[in-house]
Amino acid sequence: MSCAMWPFDSGRVTAPVIRLEGLIASRGAGRGLSLNTVEPALERAFAMKRTPIVALSINSPGGSAVQSRLITQRIRQLAAQKKKRVLAFVEDIGASGGYMLACAGDEIFVDPSSIVGSIGVIGGGFGFPELMAKIGVERRVYTAGAVKGRLDAFRPEDPDDVARLQAILDHIHEVFIGLVRERRAGKLKETPMLFQGEVFTAQEAIASGLVDGFGDLHSVLAARYGETVRLKRVQPPKPSLLRRLMGGAGDALVETMEERAAFARFGL
Predict the structure, then answer these.
(1) pLDDT for 20-70, tens place per residue?
(2) Considering its fold, how many domains does the chain have in total?
(3) Which sign, positive or negative, has the C-alpha torsion 220, 226, 227, 228?
(4) Domain harbouring 230, CATH code
(5) Long-range contacts of range 112-115, CB-CB < 8 Å, 24 or more positions apart?
(6) Which of 78, 134, 200, 224 gives 117 a disulfide partner, CB atoms 3.0 to 4.6 angstroms apart?
(7) Which domain holds residue 18?
(8) Rounded to whole angstroms, what are the CA distances from 9 to 2, 5, 50?
(9) pTM of the model
(10) Is residue 155 part of a domain?
(11) Quick check: is 156 in a domain?
(12) Burial group, residue 136, by CB count within 10 angstroms (0-12, 13-18, 19+)
């Protein structure tokens, strides 16, 4: 077998890099990050022979708590199976589910201007009962199940419904906190605001142990594996033209607007 077929070429290390960018969601025409969209790239990256690491390039404001955890969990499963170290690099933002993805790394690096954290859970909507009465529209909903119509936007808010939703959000929050504590064990310096949904500057994130230090993809890998380290981008497959057309231009526009709104929450 010729040497050119090996990831190590005369001592040169090849580092697979997976880019995790955008809103984390399990719907649409393949635009959002989900386990379904990124798993093929993860498996290709971790299957590369004779390379000691996999790098994650992350730029995400978060999204689905379930998809964030599924992706993170799959990365850790593959890292254990293939015995590879994972290095995570946060670019503009690694917040909420985006920070959860970063926690898949054995080490997390940030740019001095990165935004990190937002370890919390959010849920919400709108209410229109007064508008309905004002314009003379009657809401007619029929359910089987006493609480099936909980949090109906066209009915007055029920304190019991709000309490139930809060209990669900609190549970998801505890799962998130547990994952962070597990992945950053021995590094966290817990403060009253650490798990309250606050976002932190890169310097604050380093001080609290949320991340390990400053560093960009090229510089850290060159320092670790030599100036000749070769970055191999492993991209998730793009959705087919047919799938994009079936998804519809309207769906794509809504997804784009939601993604922009998610980034805008952090001033980006």
Answers:
(1) 999 999 864 446 799 999 999 999 999 998 899 999 999 999 999 999 999
(2) 1
(3) negative
(4) 3.90.226.10
(5) 112/202, 112/203, 112/214, 113/202, 114/90, 114/201, 114/202, 114/205, 115/199, 115/200, 115/201, 115/202, 115/266, 115/268
(6) 200
(7) 3-121+187-264
(8) 10, 8, 11
(9) 0.83
(10) no
(11) no
(12) exposed
